[in-house]
Write a sequence for this structure.
């Protein structure tokens, strides 16, 4: 295969809402360039990019798939991404390594909620972006409405490069950059080029002038030329549009019919001649604060943006060459593990097809097989040139489930399979809760969870069972209480004897020292699960030897690890040991540990025990017109509204909600708002459970 330099490699990512035609456009571009003899379709399950069994079953893209095509001495790497926000990890990693984002709009639907959500990620990275309005030949297509939607999304920086026209029953596209009309045959393919019809000349001239002004705005030299000549030629316009795209201030808009192969060739020509290459982008800064120059003669640095475990093959690692050149058998260092990785094979990928190559230069996207310990988000660098590329920050989980194997003997197999899934998809968060004794898996939504389940069953042969996680409650007390316990055990030989008298009280920060006791010592224990145990020695007259106090405290802590009410952790209690008895022969550490535990448990149950539940602070981003429904739902979940903020047409609502009430919230919010609202949550505090709820929990 021909090796292209960094100026002739263009990396584009196709993003858009579900059903906008990303996969079809990818297929059409490969066909148009001659890499395919026949185009596949999503319906026939034979496209290059949607090749996974799960994608065939569901009829939709689940995984981001790198492809490539060659067009007029340029190499175009295309990443076809899912259109559903559940697979945001695939979308974000693809945007991260692309040089230009191609946002595809369905001409029947305009900008959909999926487009808006993805735009937020694109805007975060400030990536050069162009828009493609697809399905212009559909009877219900509305190009103008779709364009106005784009303007509402990105502002007046959206500018038409093309618009569609029906002429004598034929689909045409008028291009105001080239000032030509392309007329397509009914079956699509290569168009005829015509002058712009007289009745379209005024509109085309107006749009051409708007495009000239947009191009001139982003380059001082071009602005001077524009003032001098009153216009710009095509090459000057290309230069200005590229500058505007790099500044994230010009968003060119094209139109195509991907299904009928209308306009894809012109789109590829624009990608070749105008959109930025990796060499045009500003050099990235590494974690170490160093510049990563996009040059072929710089030290080699690769960024791993995707990994896939292939049955019977091993791990396939996808990377972008951020600097330098990589060749077969190169040895590179993983900046995270500091292990040396040998790249025994290099590939260009087209779906499942691997085409071996001998080297890849800066800006290119490729893959390799069977690296030892490299995962998604890792950096591989040349020895002696430490470089760590800033990792992708993925959104937190929106849905968490407890997971176990249906067959108990497969638990270990399940854990290993989940570890592999997480290494490939960082938006799958796997953890084990010692407190709840449950393995937890966090993901982005019900569809994402269903995909994890499918992979476990079909790739790893494990039958998983998902259920709501237990809630990590806490126990404490609301008043003081006293108790004593005598532990006496006599058997052959030495016996066991210990007697402990103690008082317990609720503890809070800044409370005064206890009165009426002779305080001989005090210890504050910061509990691993939060809160404190404050332990006082108030023994008078040596009735209990000092050496036994640690054993009493140990017995109390054991009870606090499995609370008397529900078995939950106990927190925020202070204990005063003030009396007791011992025996010169039969007393020992075990006896005092048992006596301390029993006395504490009895006192706890008499001190008006209180169950505490974890609250989470939710930040919900919701369109203003849907706020009422969202608030009603939150209040039914015992939420306390903290406040509101306004960002454009969205309300940002903050509230605290008991974790126990958040089961199914992600799915419910999506249903309430047609997917237009998003939320994040973080732990806020522990608060007392209402009395009626506490009674039910204790019964359970």
């Amino acid at each position: 295969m021909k090796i292209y330099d960094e100026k002739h490699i263009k990396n584009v990512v196709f993003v858009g809402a579900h059903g906008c035609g990303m996969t079809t456009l990818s297929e059409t571009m490969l066909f148009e360039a001659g890499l395919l003899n026949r185009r596949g379709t999503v319906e026939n399950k034979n496209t290059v990019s949607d090749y996974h069994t799960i994608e065939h079953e569901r009829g939709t893209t689940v995984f981001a798939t790198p492809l490539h095509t060659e067009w007029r001495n340029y190499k175009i790497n295309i990443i076809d991404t899912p259109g559903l926000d559940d697979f945001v990890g695939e979308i974000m990693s693809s945007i991260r390594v692309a040089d230009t984002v191609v946002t595809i709009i369905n001409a029947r639907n305009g900008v959909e909620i999926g487009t808006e959500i993805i735009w937020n990620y694109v805007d975060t990275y400030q990536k050069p972006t162009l828009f493609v309005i697809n399905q212009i030949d559909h009877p219900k297509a509305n190009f103008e409405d779709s364009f106005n939607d784009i303007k509402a999304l990105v502002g007046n920086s959206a500018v038409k490069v093309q618009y569609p026209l029906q002429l004598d029953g034929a689909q045409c596209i008028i291009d105001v950059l080239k000032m030509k009309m392309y007329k397509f045959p009914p079956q699509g393919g290569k168009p005829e080029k015509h002058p712009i019809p007289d009745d379209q000349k005024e509109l085309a001239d107006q749009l051409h002038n708007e495009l000239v002004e947009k191009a001139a705005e982003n380059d001082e030299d071009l602005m001077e030329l524009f003032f001098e000549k009153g216009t710009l030629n095509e090459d000057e316009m290309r230069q200005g549009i590229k500058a505007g795209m790099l500044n994230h201030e010009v968003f060119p808009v094209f139109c195509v019919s991907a299904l009928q192969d209308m306009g894809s060739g012109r789109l590829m020509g624009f990608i070749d001649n105008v959109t930025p290459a990796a060499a045009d982008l500003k050099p990235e800064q590494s974690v170490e604060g160093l510049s990563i120059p996009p040059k072929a003669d710089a030290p080699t640095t690769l960024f791993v943006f995707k990994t896939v475990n292939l049955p019977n093959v091993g791990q396939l690692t996808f990377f972008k060459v951020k600097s330098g050149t990589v060749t077969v058998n190169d040895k590179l260092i993983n900046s995270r593990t500091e292990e040396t990785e040998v790249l025994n094979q290099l590939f260009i990928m087209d779906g499942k097809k691997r085409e071996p190559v001998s080297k890849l230069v800066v800006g290119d996207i490729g893959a390799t097989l069977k690296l030892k310990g490299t995962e998604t988000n890792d950096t591989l660098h040349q020895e002696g040139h430490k470089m760590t590329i800033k990792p992708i920050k993925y959104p937190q989980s929106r849905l968490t489930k407890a997971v176990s194997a249906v067959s108990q003997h497969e638990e270990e197999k399940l854990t290993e399979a989940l570890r592999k899934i997480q290494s490939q998809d960082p938006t799958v968060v796997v953890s084990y809760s010692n407190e709840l004794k449950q393995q937890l898996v966090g993901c982005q939504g019900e569809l994402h969870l269903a995909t994890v389940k499918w992979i476990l069953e079909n790739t790893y042969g494990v039958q998983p069972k998902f259920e709501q996680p237990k809630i990590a409650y806490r126990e404490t007390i609301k008043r003081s209480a006293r108790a004593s316990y005598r532990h006496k055990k006599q058997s052959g030989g030495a016996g066991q004897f210990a007697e402990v008298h103690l008082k317990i009280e609720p503890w809070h920060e800044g409370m005064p020292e206890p009165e009426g006791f002779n305080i001989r010592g005090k210890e504050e224990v910061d509990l691993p699960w939060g809160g404190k145990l404050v332990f006082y020695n108030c023994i008078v007259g040596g009735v209990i030897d000092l050496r036994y106090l640690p054993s009493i405290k140990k017995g109390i802590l054991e009870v606090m690890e499995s609370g008397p009410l529900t078995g939950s952790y106990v927190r925020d209690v202070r204990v005063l040991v003030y009396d007791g008895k011992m025996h010169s022969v039969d007393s020992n550490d075990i006896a005092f540990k048992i006596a301390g535990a029993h006395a504490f448990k009895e006192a706890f149950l008499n001190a008006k025990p209180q169950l505490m539940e974890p609250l989470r602070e939710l930040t919900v981003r919701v369109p203003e017109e849907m706020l009422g429904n969202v608030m009603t739902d939150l209040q039914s979940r015992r939420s306390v509204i903290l406040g509101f903020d306004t960002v454009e047409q969205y309300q940002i609502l903050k509230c605290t909600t008991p974790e126990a009430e958040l089961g199914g919230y992600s799915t419910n919010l999506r249903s309430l708002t047609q997917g237009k609202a998003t939320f994040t949550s973080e732990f806020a505090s522990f608060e007392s459970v209402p009395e009626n709820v506490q009674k039910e929990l204790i019964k359970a």
Remarks:
- DSSP finds 16 helices and 38 strands in the chain.
